[in-house]
Amino acid sequence: MFKSYKQVIGAWGQAGGTVADALRAFAADMQITTNTAKAMYRRDSIPPDYWPRAVSKAAARNIAGLTLDHLAELRRAKTERLRRAARRTRPKNRAPRALQATA
User: Fold this and answer.
1) Cα–Cα distance measured from residue 45 to residue 59, given in angstroms and rounded to the nearest whole number
2) What does the pLDDT read at residue 10?
3) What is the C-alpha separation between 43 and 41, in angstroms, rounded?
4) Helices H, strands E: what count in the chain?
5) Kindly report the CA angle at 13 between 17 and 59, in degrees rounded to 5?
6) For residue 59, what pLDDT is reported?
7) Rounded average pLDDT over 63-92
8) How far apart are CA 75 and CA 21, in angstroms?
């Protein structure tokens, strides 16, 4: 199973190939530019509009384990990680809104 969208995109590469090779192959299959594929890789995100094509092209390339449900689970996990990170970065010693000075 894939643990990230980067791994999904990387699966388009051949054994011993480079990430650049995988990005070019992924971009060709998704009918997007290589720069768009690079942005998806860098952000570790594949927008849901591309999921059906990714699943069908992965099957055509014999990339096992890629389903719409799995892509959705990756999205849920990433969203949860971001939420937890946002909670950790909130200021803790902040006065309640009712006690804050009004501007």
Assistant:
1) 20
2) 96
3) 5
4) 5, 0
5) 155
6) 96
7) 89
8) 25
